[in-house]
Amino acid sequence: MKTEAPSSRGSRRSRHALLADLRRVISLATERRWPAPVLIMLGLAVSFTETIGITLVVLFIYSAMGRAGDAIAVGGVVGRLYEMLLAHIGSAGLLSLIILALIAAKGLLSYLYRVIGASVQARVNETVHNNLHRQYLYTSYDFIRSHEQAHLLDILAKESWAVADAYVRLTRIFINLCSIIIFVAFLLILSWRVTLIALVGSVLLSAGLRFLYAPVRRLGKETHDVNQRLADRILVTLQGMRTIRAFGQEARQHTAFRGVAAEARRNAFRLELLYGLVNPATEIGYLALLCLIVGLAQPMGASFATTLAAVALLYRLQPHVREFESNLLYIAQLELPIRSVLNMLETADKRYVSPGQYPFEQFRESIVFDDVSFTYMGGSLPALDRARFTIRTGSTTAIVGASGAGKTTIVNLLLRLYEPDAGSILVDGDVLQDLLRTDWLSRVAIAGQDVDLIDGTIADNIRMARPEASEAEVTSAAEAAGVMEIVARSSSGFETWIGQQGLNLSGGQRQRIGLARAILRDPDLLILDEATSALDHEIEQSIRANLATRFAGRTILIITHRLETLRAADHVICLHEGRVIEEGSPTELLSKRESTFQRLLARQQRSDRPPVVFGVA
Questions:
Q1: Residue among 259, 278, 122 nearest 213 (CA)
Q2: pLDDT for 320-373, tens place per residue?
């Protein structure tokens, strides 16, 4: 029994996968159904006018030479067409005007095709970009966190263009095929023998060019991978600029970048070499084919006029065949980028945060974590394990615990970044996931130790909480958070550019902007996750006093290790390995002879002692 080679089976699977991807590209790009048929009709009209024009050129040449009878001697449909045209036109001058009109029509149709094609390509690009950006915003947070930023950026900024390119190339391939059919039909009208030789030669030439497909597909994969690594290196350089310079690693980073850039250059060059083979190989092959037809025309009984018309048609057919082969090669190269984009756009394999269904206006009673469990994607142990506790409205609740105890997970769940795997979070008796997400988040604000800032101005970052806030409201929030000191030091004031992730600012300055943003939100629930850890004692005390005044009677959730902060809390929750092991008022927990709360405080106080230098404390 004959078995198929593994490489052959793999190649066939790859072709089937590529065809499936291209069908998805077509379905994605045909939200408006009229552009594709219009493009195809225009492309065919261009080919048809070009073909008619070429046949008339032959008649024009013979008419200009005074040998129109030789052209009519071509016989068949073309000969009768020539005879009818000569009978109605009667002069080479009028025939030349008709030919010029056909050339002008071809030019106009080509221009319309390019305009509509460019519009369709731009619209497809826009659609893909919008859909990808929406995926990034609305897929589950753990899915986004599981992908490298460079990979996500590369898909949105670069690989997304492959879908529009593939769509345009597919329409061109269809037009190329139809154009070839039109030319072949006219060749058959002229002479089936000449057409047979041309078809056999074209098939052999096309089969030879197919040997380029495998290396192009392989190089396309290698280029995709190296471009991804190049994007990784760029992102490492930009995001880690301060660390790279602080440790003097500029040369090492640049050497690594140059290595990847050189590999990208080599791949691009090899791809260009393969593409460069298409044109000369096709031209040489067709030149040999034309010579063969001219040599065999007379023995086959074809007249000189027939041979001339056939050669002219074959010469003009060559660009269509060359473009057809080039488009096939290009689509083979786009296989991996297309697949990356389509996989990212797929919805069936992704989770989405529930938008909720019930409106939420105000936090009134309590937030209850009722046996809540949660495990991060790829995690082996739960970050929260049947956690039970209550956050009362109008009170200050503190959560303490060692690193990895589950404090950040509680914050992430309250911010609806994730949803519990088991148990429920109840807000005034309603399940949190059932509340309209936008309503709930409009009443919550967070300021943390690690502040997420956008690449923009101070005002841009503060207004993330409330884009519609007035200048007076922004200024008031900035004053409460101690940001006015930063603003006063810059000639640009609130329009001071802070750089990517606020790299132009110190850690304390970033925290103050984060606090101003949370204050501007004016929330029912304020979450402070070590929000003043990088501030000087004097500034911290001032901001705490401002917060105490502004949020008197509000619900505050504090994550901190500082004893003075914990003493101000109404309720303290102690976490260990995702479980609540102790809770109560600070006074109750401090009065116990043995408590986890006291051990955590003692450990923190030891870590806050002055460092030992040369063995002396």
A1: 278
A2: 877 887 888 788 778 888 888 888 988 888 888 788 899 998 888 999 999 999
Residue carrying structure tokens 């048929």 = 37
Query: pLDDT value at position 616?
Result: 34
- Distance from C-alpha of 46 to C-alpha of 181, rounded to nearest angstrom: 13
Q: Top-level CATH class of 354-443+524-540+550-610?
A: alpha beta
Class level of CATH domain 32-345 = mainly alpha
Contact 374, 140 (CB under 8 A): no
Q: Domain segments of the chain: what residues? A: 32-345, 354-443+524-540+550-610, 450-522
- Helix/strand/coil percent split, the chain, to 5: 65, 10, 25
Q: Which amino acid is at 387?
A: A
Of 431, 290, 250, which Cα lies nearest the Cα of 356?
Answer: 431
- What does the alpha-carbon distance between residue 593 and residue 612 come to, in Å, rounded to a whole number? 30
CB 17 within 8 A of CB 165: no
The Cα 422–Cα 399 span in angstroms is 21
Say yes or no: do domains 32-345 and 450-522 share a fold. Answer: no
Which string of b and e fits 400-419 if b means at least 16 CB within 10 Å?
Answer: bbbeebbbbbbbbbbbbebb
Q: Give the mean pLDDT of 213-229.
A: 79
- Are the C-beta atoms of residues 512 and 448 closer than 8 Å to each other? no
Cite the DSSP H helix spans in 139-191: 141-145, 149-154, 161-190
Q: By CB neighbour count within 10 A (0-12 exposed, 13-18 middle, 19+ buried), where does 436 fall? A: middle
d(CA 51, CA 42): 14
Q: Does the domain at residues 450-522 carry the CATH identifier 3.40.50.300? A: yes
Q: Which of 443, 441, 465, 444 has the alpha carbon at shortest distance from 453?
A: 465
Q: What would the pLDDT profile of 401-459 be if each residue is shown by its tens digit?
A: 888 889 999 999 999 999 999 999 999 999 999 999 999 999 999 998 877 888 889 99
DSSP per-residue string spanning 42-81: HHHHHHHHHHHHHHHHHHHHHHHTT-HHHHHTT-HHHHHH
| The pLDDT of residue 241 is above 80 | no
Return the structure tokens found at 4.
């198929």
Amino acid making up residue 212:
L
Tokens describing residue 210: 């197919």
Residue 78 CA to residue 314 CA, distance in Å, equals 16
Q: What is the DSSP letter of 611?
A: P
- Distance between CA 211 and CA 376 in Å, rounded? 47
Give the number of residues written for the chain: 617
